[in-house]
Amino acid sequence: MEPLVKINPGVTKWDIRQMIWDYIEDKNLANFPRPVHNRIPNFKGAFTACPKVSELEVFTQTTEVKVDPDKPLEGARLAVLQAHKTLLVPTPRLRSGLFNKIVPPQGANKEQLRACASSQGVKEFSVPIGLDAKVKVDLVVVGSVAVSEKGFRIGKGEGFADLEYAMMASMGAVDESTVVVTVVHDCQVVDIPEELMEKHDLTVDYILTPSRVIKTNCPSPKPQGIIWTKLDTEKLEKIPILKKLLAQEELAGKDVTLGAGPPSAEPLSQTGAPKKQSRRKPRQKAARQDAQEESKEEKSGEPQPNARQRPARVRKESRGSEGEATESRRRKGQSGRNIKEKSPEEIGGEVVTQSKIPPSVTTVYLGGIPTGLRVSELKTSLREREVAPLRLTWQGAQHRAFLDYSNPEAAEKALEALQGLSLNGHSVQAELAKSQRRSKRPGPSNKKPRPAPTSDAEAVDSKSEVHEQTE
């Protein structure tokens, strides 16, 4: 069958991703969440393709099946539960372990199993599986952005599927007999150049689409374990279970030398020399991450999505919320005059100068922030999606926050990456702030810089240490 998306010679993995994402959006081939960029697409027809996993001959011989938590694989998780097989699902971004075992209620009917297969059900009906558990995974189902009939796979660029498989191989949970399946739309089956594939890349044995079942007979071996030189200390800090695996392999006499370079957008694919630190005091992780992201952009052979910009830190002149404007007026009225600018020491080292305020600064509004969420948790989610703003204004008591970006293009990229954001199980609304939805006169504003917010409107520089307030 002729691929629906033509891949030209000389392309990179990111080129292929962008082509697939653009095609799916242009042809309206996806369900919520949209847009599909920087995601495993939740394509239309996923619930037609997923049940085909139970029709594979290898499925009947399986006992334990690992299925990724992506939305389009919900039907595959349901098929595993309906077949009364053990379902394992990786923990989100591997923060709290490798995977969880889904345990449905005793005697669960189809609707209850369907609920267990959903993202919320995975949280509610699961128990963690530790490294010491004797797990033997017979079948692995992964999401993909693109895949070839030869079995070459491209994910969304974060490398978690590759890393998860390598970790399972290290702990003996998978071996040469483990079968890997991916479920995609027909348009995601393309010709991927073999030279783009690396030793750590996970290949697939079967491709399920709404119209086809493809056996790839892929000759390339799957990862045999973790390639430690492709990781660094920061990756170990983000994924604590890696520390345990490293300690175990070191005791077993294996070489666990880490790489010196920062993680790339595809965590296991590239390394590079770290960028020289800024003169600003690097006293927190966020600053180190920003320096590494810049190095990644310069050193990587592939363009990165949502690449961060590092213009001067600024204080937003106006807020995209009437409530915030009222709060500003209230504070001004209380003092009878404008609040005096604080020194850098008083506001956590943030230097504010009128001359450095970008005239085109654009604000994104986040609404529906759940009660009890800490600003540090929001910052972590922003960094994971690579959408750290120039400035973050936190209004947790009002269940909202505002993110400033240097220009409308950066804000639009952030909006794309923030679609479908869920915090503590609650969906968060992301849209342009009210002030950005009206046409704005070009050029810098003549207004004075807005004073540093206090009380429930706490300004937080996204690259500085967070001072968290208690409500």
Describe it for me?
- The chain is of the alpha+beta class and 471 residues long.
- It has 13 helices and 17 strands.
- It has helices at residues 13-26, 46-49, 57-60, 74-82, 110-117, 119-124, 160-170, 233-238, 240-251, 285-299, 322-335, 375-384, 408-418, and strands at residues 64-67, 86-90, 99-102, 126-129, 139-142, 146-147, 153-154, 179-183, 206-208, 213-215, 362-367, 391-395, 400-405, 422-423, 426-427, 429-432, 458-460.
- It has an eight-stranded mixed β-sheet. A five-stranded antiparallel β-sheet has the order 16-11-13-12-17, covered by helices on one side.
- Helix 4 packs across helix 5 (110-117).
- Mean pLDDT is 75; it is low at 261-357 and 439-471.
Describe the structure concisely for a colleague.
The model is unreliable at 261-357 and 439-471 (pLDDT under 50). β1, α4 and β2 form a beta-alpha-beta unit.
| Widest sheet: strand ordering | 4-3-2-1-5-8-9-10
Cα-atom radius of gyration: 24 Å
Structural class: alpha+beta
Outline the low-pLDDT stretches.
Answer: 261-357, 439-471
Give the percentage of residues in beta strands. Answer: 5-15%
- Helical coverage, percent range: 25-40%
- Count every beta strand, where a strand is a DSSP E run of 2 or more residues: 17
Largest sheet: 8 strands, mixed
Q: Mind sketching the topology for me?
A:
Blueprint: H1 13-26, H2 46-49, H3 57-60, E1 64-67, H4 74-82, E2 86-90, E3 99-102, H5 110-117, H6 119-124, E4 126-129, E5 139-142, E6 146-147, E7 153-154, H7 160-170, E8 179-183, E9 206-208, E10 213-215, H8 233-238, H9 240-251, H10 285-299, H11 322-335, E11 362-367, H12 375-384, E12 391-395, E13 400-405, H13 408-418, E14 422-423, E15 426-427, E16 429-432, E17 458-460
